[in-house]
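Q&A log
Question type: sequence-to-structure
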Amino acid sequence: MREADLSEIDEMIIHEKMQTALEHQVEAWADGVADGIEPEIIADAALVTVMREAVKLFGEDGAEAVLDDLKSRILAGEFSPDRQIQ
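Response status: OK
Response body:
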């Protein structure tokens, strides 16, 4: 196989894993809401978990870089519920 083909396969695998991870997150969110937990509390708990894991994986400087990247993506409208992907 060509290197480009392997790269495309790797990208597809990563995309599928991301989709599965997002499905798990949505399910956990729905379970929390069904248990009577306010969305704001679920969001806060999710962010705390993300930052703890980011610090474990990347260290404090790396976690800060993750936050900087997220800030840029937020400001670009990537997470806006009204965003339309074309």
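Response note: Residues 48 and 80 are 21 Å apart (CA to CA).
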